[in-house]
Design a protein that fits this description.
The protein is built from twelve helices and 13 strands. By secondary structure, the protein is an alpha/beta fold. The strands form three sheets. Strands 5-6-7-3-8-9 form a six-stranded mixed β-sheet, with helices on both faces. It has a four-stranded antiparallel β-sheet with strand order 11-12-10-13, with helices on one face. The chain has a three-stranded antiparallel β-sheet with strand order 2-1-4. A hairpin with a 2-residue loop joins strand 8 and strand 9. The protein starts with 11 loop residues before the first strand and ends with a helix.
Length: 338
Amino acid sequence: MLVQEVNSDFIIESTNLSKEYIYYKKEKGIKGSIKNLFHRKKLFKQAVKNLSIQIPKGEIVGLIGLNGAGKTTTLKMLTGIIAPTSGNVQVLGYYPFHKKKEYLKQIAMVMGNKSQLWWDLPAIDSFYLNKTIYEIEDFEFKKNLNFMVEMMGVEKQLHVQVRRLSLGERMKMELIASLLHKPNVLFLDEPTIGLDVITQYNIRKFLKEYNSLYGTTIILTSHNFNDIVSLCNSIILINNGEKIYSNSFKNFEKEFFNKKYFILKLKTPNVENIIEKLKISNYHEIEKIGDNSIKISTTSEKSMDILRNLSEKFLDELLDINIENISMDDVIRKIYQE
């Protein structure tokens, strides 16, 4: 049994949380298959390694990482779907992998590529099933259901077979089903995967409002950085099962989003000559990006000075100027490279 100390400041806390999977090497050919029956070589894969996190109540936390980084495995350990190999984990004062009824009634998990709804029945039937499972009172059930149905705008879809709903409509129903019992913690694994931009926006808006109203703690994994930017108070980056960065989103922005790019389209193809002139003007991060285009990298603080200088000294050389912010993709790539 893993022994843990309760820390009331955090609703979720783990210390050196690790998960190791065992698998067996498969030999080639018929001889190899026969050999495997008697002597199998055991191999190990470290999915999560020494992950320590602390999450206060009401936070929306983005768990970011490449495919295979350990995000979903982490969520499964926090929800109790799988037990850790070692380390300590506590959610709402419970050991998740003990799967106590009192704990399970306080959490919910939605996975973008898996459904909890009955495929051949209308979503409303699954909602009533969840009402029974979570022992929700009639008045509370109707109030919660009506509130979320109105927020999601799915009144007309309640009595339609789930398999006949669009992907976006199904995801909205998944969220309603998961939140009927008003869980204290909601785990979301790729909730906007495959959805159109309008549905993504509506789901993010719903989650933001729901979190604001009820103070539900939300742990979110997503490859859609718009989800992270729009929703998260803080982020955790993991790579090969290890935490490589953790901070509030405000500090994350200050640290990595202070960069701007000036894209200059020139009248002359003599780009090298312009680059030398720019270097004389103390522009050092300059690169040629096309036959007659240049990119200048700078900080937000210096951007107005650069724009003024370009207008005064290089106006005759320019066809166009575009100013771009550093993208989330660039930031994440930079962190992983470091």
